[in-house]
């Protein structure tokens, strides 16, 4: 995936900029998920339901991306 990103990025904004944007997105998502997890633990939600919730969230996100990709 990174090789594809670098190849396409080289043609548009440059490979370095494309990777920087990818890293920004990934790090922002990690911080957001860490914040949500910390909040859930702080209010007393057990770990297993938190894991199931994150799994469901990722499944919904992937499904939404799949549907969006098929329409475009």
UniProtKB/TrEMBL annotation:
Ranges annotated as spanning the membrane: 36-68
Keywords: Membrane, Transmembrane, Transmembrane helix
Source taxon at top rank: Bacteria
Protein name from the UniProt record: MFS transporter
Organism in which the protein naturally occurs: Escherichia coli
Lineage: Bacteria, Pseudomonadati, Pseudomonadota, Gammaproteobacteria, Enterobacterales
